[in-house]
Amino acid sequence: MTEVMTTGRRALFARGMVAPLLLSPALLASAPNLARAQAPAKSRLADIVARGKLIVATYSSAPPFCFTDDKGQLVGFDIDIAKLIAVGLFNDPNKIEFNIVTGETRWAAVESGLADFGIASTTIFADRLLRVSFTQPYLDVGFSALVKKGLGIKTIEDLNQSKYNISILNSPSAVARAKRFFPNAQTTAFDTISALFLAVRSGRAQAATIDSGVIDYYVAQYKDELEALPGYLGAVVNNAIYLKQGDFTLWNYLDGMVNEMRHGSLYEQYSDAYKKWFGKDAPPSKPYLK
Predict the structure, then answer these.
(1) Residue 50 scores a pLDDT above 70
(2) Same-domain check for residues 161 and 93
(3) Residue 127 placed within a domain
(4) How far apart are CA 278 and CA 216, in angstroms?
């Protein structure tokens, strides 16, 4: 006999009040396991707050971003950015432990959990997106060239001659860029930014190619010895904070902080740091809505 569904029973079904009665015993037994599987993983941000300090991977020999000064203090534009994040979390710029890394070990530092995130003059590239997550850029840069004065070199194109030796960083992207723009020139790769520019100052190399921000800093420091060439090697690129993949909560916090620095409530502090290390005004802020 077919049961006739009453008006009241229809209402209960519509409200979902009798739906559990239709679940099989096996499905009901698995419900706690399903809930645990669907629960979001704990973010490292909670660990940071509980710990009371940040652990940040950075360089110690990459002026003007992150380097050790004459007093033995870790300073630079990236260091100031990290301190702004510490102020946002703990109202104290000194609540940071810096984990010194190299170009190769910077990825392992965040992948292994030794550091919460990295801020080490690191450019976003497609192959790197497969390994770590990046925030939006905290700095837009172009790759340019710097030369020793008095050599008669006027343009970037002038460097593409066999008589010139160009110092570059020892990274796959820098090597590929040199092969693309200077196939006829000699190149020497160095592990640190300071060594790269020392090669030019000492005469071991006649030019160096690197981020325009670094070039601005060195030209200001050694304006009687060095000069920047106009233009860029390819398109403008971006430096960003990087972190282990999969932690949306921490990424969202860091990305939001970068946005506040470049376009929001922290723009004044950001622009002060920009002027301090690059000797020029920061790009104007761009609010979401115009």
Answers:
(1) yes
(2) no
(3) yes
(4) 6
pLDDT reported for residue 286: 84
Do 223 and 263 share a domain, yes or no?
A: no
CA distance 273 to 268: 9
Number of domains in the chain: 2
Residue pair 74/58 in contact (Cβ under 8 Å)? The answer is yes
pTM of the model: 0.74
Measured CA distances, 286 to 139, 200, 260, 272, 281 (Å): 14, 37, 11, 17, 15
157-196 tens-digit pLDDT: 999 999 999 999 998 889 999 999 999 999 999 988 889 9
Query: What tokens does 86 get?
Result: 């510490």
Task: Decide: 148 and 203 in contact? Cβ < 8 Å.
Answer: yes
Strand 54-58's sheet: what is its strand order? Answer: 96-100, 54-58, 117-118, 242-243, 133-134
CA atoms of 163 and 165, how far apart (whole Å) = 7
Q: Three-state SS for 21? A: helix
**pLDDT for the residue numbered 14:** 43
> What is the pLDDT averaged over residues 201-221?
91
